[in-house]
Amino acid sequence: MIQITNSKHYDLEERTFLFAVRVKNLIKALPKNMINFEITKQLIRSACSIGANYLEANESLSKKDFVMRTKICKKEAKETRYWLRLLDCPIKNSKEKEALIQETIEFAKIFGSILEKCK
C-alpha cells in the first residue's frame, strides 16, 4: 500500500495518481472471474479518470473549462465508489477496498469544495 508521507501538505495530482495505482494493484490481486472482469473494466476507467481530469482542469484555458473538468472529477469519484462497492473482494483485500472507498468519498468532498469556491 502506498502512503502519502506528509498528511498536511500534498499534491492532489499525486494523490489521484497514487489512488489509481492502488486501484490497479487491488484489481491485480483479485480472483479472475466473469463478474470481476466486467466490474474491474469500469473501475479502472473511472479510477484513472479522476486524476486525468484533474490534470486537465489544472491546464484549462478558462474558468468554465476548469469547473466542467472538476465536476467530472467529482462524478468519476462517485462512480468509482460505486464500482468498488460492487467488487467481489476476498477478505485479505477488504481493508484496502474499504480504504479506497473512503478515498473516493474524500475526493468527492474535495472536488465539491473546489466547485463551491468557484461560484
Question: Care to give the gist of this entry?
Answer:
The protein is mainly α and 119 residues long.
Description:
This protein is 80% helix and 0% strand. The relative contact order is 0.15. The protein starts with 11 loop residues before the first helix and ends with a helix. It has a single domain, classed as de novo design (two linked rop proteins) (Up-down Bundle), CATH 1.20.1440.60. The longest helix is centred in the C-terminal third of the chain and has 28 residues, at 91-118. The protein is mostly helical. It is elongated, with a radius of gyration of 15 Å. It is built from 4 helices and no strands.
Beta-strand level of the residues, as a percent range?
under 5%
Total strand segments: 0
Number of domains: 1
What is the rounded distance between the termini?
A: 36 Å
Count up the helices. Answer: 4
Tell me the radius of gyration: 15 Å
What form results from the Cα inertia axes? Answer: elongated
Low-confidence stretches: 1-9
CATH architecture: Up-down Bundle
Largest beta sheet, briefly? none
CATH superfamily: 23S rRNA-intervening sequence
Instruction: Look at the structure and give the CATH class.
Output: Mainly Alpha
Give the class from helix and strand content and strand pairing. Answer: mainly alpha
* CATH topology (level 3) name: de novo design (two linked rop proteins)
Residue share in helices? Answer: over 70%
InterPro entries: 23S_rRNA-intervening_sequence, 23S_rRNA_IVS_sf
Protein name: Four helix bundle protein
Organism: Candidatus Kerfeldbacteria bacterium CG_4_10_14_0_8_um_filter_42_10
